[in-house]
Amino acid sequence: MSTGDIGESLVGAYMRHVEQCSIVIYNSFFADQQGEVDVVAVKPGKPDEPSTVYLCEVTTHIDGMNPTLIPRVPGKLTRLRAFAELTFPDENYVFQWWSPYVPWGARLNAFKRIQEEWAEEGRTFELIANEDYTARIGELIDRARATSSTTNEPAFRMLQVLTRLRGAKPAL
């Protein structure tokens, strides 16, 4: 794993251990332009069916998503779609943006408008934020609790350790 970002590691671990993706790649850079995809995960399809490719942007601003990011979101998503179509032309795509905390108001509304625009184009875009983010990390914690196998995702390994602490449990 080549990511030093714990938020990206959490998303990659979710993709591998919950979504059952066999390939998880971090920080895939575009060959001919500025930008990268934070997490790309591939879940193979059944024989003669396309794979599902998850293309995830990850913003881990723990005090709330920085408002200066919002104007850049449409461009990032356009590059994400172009990357998907170029790199995985015949596969099914799932576009996601993960963030533990997107404040209610203008920032969350901006994502809702983008989702509506994508829906008008017949595409789907998922915002995994706030309660949904928490629920998915809860699923990942349950998986970490259920297995002790060594893993290459630092966040998953940390969850394995935290779910096996002995003695009085620290409050989060």
Structural class: alpha/beta
Query: Helix proportion of residues, in percent?
Result: 25-40%
Secondary structure tally, helices: 5
What coarse outline follows from CA principal-axis ratios? globular
- CATH level 1 class label: Alpha Beta
What fold name stands as the CATH topology?
Trna Endonuclease, Chain: A, domain 1
Radius of gyration: 17 Å
Oligomer: single chain
In short:
The chain is α/β, with parallel strands linked by helices and 172 residues long. 40% of the residues lie in helices and 20% in strands. The chain has a 5-stranded mixed sheet, with helices on both faces.
Please give a structural write-up:
There is one protein chain. This protein is of the alpha/beta class and 172 residues long. The protein has one domain (6-162): Trna Endonuclease, Chain: A, domain 1. 40% of the residues lie in helices and 20% in strands. The protein contains five helices and five strands; from the N terminus they run αβββαβαβαα. It has a five-stranded mixed β-sheet with strand order 1-2-3-4-5, with helices on both faces. Strand 2 (36-43) and strand 3 (52-58) form a beta hairpin. Helix 4 (130-146) crosses helix 5. The longest helix is centred in the C-terminal third of the chain and has 17 residues, at 130-146. It starts with 5 loop residues before the first helix and ends in a 10-residue tail after the last helix.
